[in-house]
Each structure stands twice: as structure tokens, then as C-alpha cells.
Amino acid sequence: MRIHFVAVAGTGMGPLAGLLRSAGHDVSGSDTSFYPPIGPALEAWGIHLMQGFDAGHLDPAPDLVVVGNVCRPTNVEARAAIDRGIRYASMAHTLAELVLEGRSPLVVGGTHGKTTTSAMCAHILSSAGLEPGFLIGGLPKNFDSSFRMPGHRKLALVSGSPTSHRRVPFVVEGDEYDTAFFEKTPKFWHYKPEVGVITSIEHDHIDIYPDEAAYRAAFDGFVERIPEKGLLVAAAHSGAVVDVASRAKADVAYFCLSDDDVGSVPPHWMGATVAASAAEGRTEFDLFVGGSLAGRLGMRVPGQHNVRNALAALAACCQGFGVPLKTATAALETFEGVRRRQDLLYVADGVRAYDDFAHHPTAVKETLAALRARHPDGALWAVFEPRSATACRALHQAEYAESFGDASRVIFAPLGRSDIPEAERLDLPRLVSELQRRGVDALAAPTIESIVETIVREARAGDTIALLSNGAFGGIYDKLKRALEERAIVG
After folding, report:
1. What DSSP state is assigned to residue 451?
2. How far apart, in whole angstroms, are the C-alpha atoms of residue 444 and residue 413?
């Protein structure tokens, strides 16, 4: 089949294009730009790339046009496909029809942690020899790409067991964002989950979910789509998740940390962290399954939030697909993490620079807490770019003031969106004042270059820089590295 992607350079669209190319389809794609890392990756995957949007890109007509959710109804290519009667679909429908049909989807949803949890699930299932397919919105370090077509190995399970109906597993990071301008429904509604995970629910994506009730309704719809013979893995410490999970037709496996307040919810999977391991760059925790101690695990990824992610992955793979617990825990010991999730980029002139995708206040708080525990000495710099539609708005103004508490220094880049009405924008000067009132050294920088200049001038050997953005951050990663290296030469 010849398939053309409109807006192919997105974090979801690009890997899907690569996945379909690996399945043997002839795939092309257009976009306004093809910056690294996605541009070179698309070329390496064998995608024929076309610059800009032009109706001529559809000549001769492809068998299917996949339209990205960044496209507006006025996009000339999308409009031409519709007007000419060429078959078109959203990313979500394409994945469901061409990849998920006939397989057992494990769909990981939630406001936070879904990329890492998805990567953990793919690694566990692979380690168990189940040859899963996967499509993940980040690059798991245990694999050479963010996607893979599944093998053909059947699950060797006892007939009549809770997992005996499962087919070849396929792990999907379940995004709650909408599908396309011609169908405004959450993507993960279309992924046919047999095993579903909800890591957390906190109001996000304000551009399409105006209030918390609308956001939660997306997860209600996700849970409704898990069949009775399926499994829902749910965070017991979140009242919102528990409320949504209470309406599930499928069995529910709850997970939590030992010090969580879970009320009357009975967690089957629980972890008790060992604090002394954090500074060594490892996270250790005692695992309890069904109330019994199942052993101590040591992981290479830091932070209590990653213990939660691990518990969710264990529940989904062991309870959902019958992976032996010993096999699953051994896999977690070798899990290397995901790029852009507390990813150490380099150490230059004695200064560590980490890259992290965190942009929601809770994710920022968890990331900084993990880095502070890992590097208790030296200053911890939080350099934050508000970029998403939610982060650029004042929705979490108060929460952001709380989330940077573990940082020694905080620098805010300019808002990444200029189309937010002034009355709705995140007030950076006010946020800086509030942090300073709390004793945190904070400033709002006018440019990326000024951020680099400040760090190079004031950061000392042993300091840690957390670069927090869900975008390219104006190329700050390489700019800072070069500047620190030059500082080292000059002395």
C-alpha cells in the first residue's frame, strides 16, 4: 500500500510512518521542516520526504492519506485529499486498522509517566520472549527505535487462565489528545485496549479540555473500551484514577507506594523505596505482590515516580500477559530508560546537563526531586521552557510555584506560544516573585542566548542543569555545551 503522511515530523506521526514502512508499505510524508532528530530518523527509516504542504504531493494519488492532528481544515494537502475523494484517516485510526487488528493491545494512558511505563512494558515483554510490537512517543534506550512490528509467537498460557485469550501483544503509548480536525475524539479511544494502564489523571491539554470534567471524561471513555476479559491497571493513590476505574467492566489491578494514602482501595502491587540508593544513580525498592514480599529490585532509572511506573508495568505484563514475575523483575533491572527522561546529555567543564520532557507541574516536581536525590551536592539549576498550550497558560500558576522547590536556581525561557490571550498567559514575572519570596533564586530570561550566558558565567563544577522542555528549546542543548567547553579552554 502507498501511504502518505501530512505533517509527518510529529512525535507520533513519524514513528508510525516508520512502523508502516517496516511492515512493507511504501511511505512518504510532508512537513514544514525536518529538524533533528526526527528528520534524519525519517530518512533512515526509508520515508520519502517532501518539503512544505502542497496538493501536488498527492500526485499520483496514494492509497491512504494520514492527516496529523496539528493540521487545520485549511491545510492544502489534507483539503485536497478530502476534496478529491482519496481515502484519508487520522493517525489513531490508521494504527488501529493497519497494525492493532488481530493483536492484543496494551495501552498505557495517563497525564504523567506513560512514555516510560510503555517502554518498561515493551522491555519486559521482549525479555519474556513474547516478541511484542510497540509504538512509543519517545526513544527507549533498550531498543534502536521507538517502534517495532510484533513477531508471531503465541502466548503459551494455560487454557482458561485470565490471560489465555491474549494474542501477540502490542504496546501503545495512549495519548488522550484528539485525533484530527475531522474527528475530535481522544486518540486512545481507538486503540482497542485489552490491557489498559492509567498512571495518573491531572488536568492537562487545556486547548481541547476546557475543564477537569472534560479531561476526566476522556479517561472514562478509555476505561469503557476495555472489555470484560481485559485488565485495567490503575494508580491507587490518585482519587481521580480510582473514581474512573470504579466503572470498569474489566478486572482492576491497583498499584501504589507503601506510604501512599489509598483509603479503602486494595492495592495488589506495592513498592517501598530504599532512600539510600538514590544518590548512587539507582532506585531500589521492596516489591509486595498481593500483600507478600516478593523481593528487592534495583533499577537504573531514578525517582519514586519511576517506582510507580515499574509497578504499573509489572502489573500489566505479569497479570495481563502471564509473564513470570522473576522474568519481569529481572528485565526491570536492565531497563535503561527513555531519552529525554532525566537523560544525562554531557558533563562539560564539570557541569552536568540533563534533558527532560517535563512540563506539567507534577512532572517538574518529580524530576527535580529525583535529580536532587541523585546529586545532593552542588547547585541544581532548573531551566524551564513553557511551551505546551497548557504550560503557557495560567492554569497552573500556583502549582508551578510549588514545583520548583528542589531547585537552587530557576531560569524561565520566554513563553513558547505567542497566540495565548494575554489575560490567560502564565505570568512569569509573578512566578519569579513568588519563587523569590520562597527563597529560590529565580529569573525570567529574555532569550535562549541570555540563559546560556548566565549559566556559563555562574555555574560551577559539580552543579547540575535540568533543561526542561517538551520541544527543541531553541537549540539550547548544543549551545550550552559549546559555551561550557569554551569556558573550560579559556579557564
Report:
1. H
2. 6
Return the H-helix or E-strand segment holding 89.
Answer: strand 88-90
Which residue stretches of 71-207 are H helix? 76-84, 91-95, 114-127
Can you tell me the distance from the alpha carbon of 52 to that of 32, in angstroms, rounded to the nearest whole number?
Answer: 4
CA nearest to 112, candidates 36, 193, 173, 53: 173
Boundaries of every domain in the chain: 2-90, 102-333, 343-490
Q: Given this structure, which CATH class describes domain 343-490?
A: alpha beta
Homologous superfamily assigned to 102-333: Mur-like, catalytic domain (3.40.1190.10)
For residues 481 and 491, give the distance between their C-alpha atoms in angstroms, rounded to a whole number. Answer: 15
Give the position of cell 498505557: 108
Domain 2-90 annotated CATH 1.10.3720.10: no
pLDDT in tens, 291-343: 999 999 999 887 888 999 999 999 999 999 999 999 999 999 999 888 777 78
Alpha carbon distance 95, 133 (integer Å) = 12
- CA neighbor of 95 nearest in space, from 41, 157, 165, 173: 173
**pTM for this prediction:** 0.83
Dist. CA 423–CA 201, nearest whole Å = 26
SS3 content of the chain, % helix, strand, coil (to 5): 35, 25, 40
> 413: which DSSP letter?
P
